[in-house]
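Structure ticket #2291
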Amino acid sequence: MDSILLDTSFCIRLLKSNDPLHTNAKDYFKYFLEQKIEIYISTIVVAEYAVKDDPSNLPLEFAKIIPFDFFDGKTAGEFHSILLNNKSQLSNIDRNVIKDDCKLIAQLFNRKIQGYITKDKKSFSQIISPIITSKSFTIELLDLEIPLNEFKGTLF
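Resolution: structure written out below.
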């Protein structure tokens, strides 16, 4: 993996020192920097983060900001349409979450970003997997709840 998109849930935990997943977020972020993995933050994430905190607190000096553009909108619409075909599977997920996840996945797809890290593992099976299957592409999904050493399969 040479590139990663940070989800809002990751950014929140990275900057909230009293969160139970703060250490995991810090460890992953340090790992991304050490491995020279390109770090991306979407303008979608900036907007979501800005609801509770000043987005200038995000680690912008270490990340590339990617705007949500016309092509992302077109792709996100296609992805949302794919999910609407499996509507029953999405009944317990907020519609706004589905739309925003489709936007982020569209950015991953259009820019060929290889990884995505989030705390919301529900989205892996209910939102991301059906899109990946339908469009035949791959993303390395990182679950923030899994500590870095478990993800890497090593002991510190």
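Closing remark: The domain at 3-148 is CATH 3.40.50.1010 (Rossmann fold).
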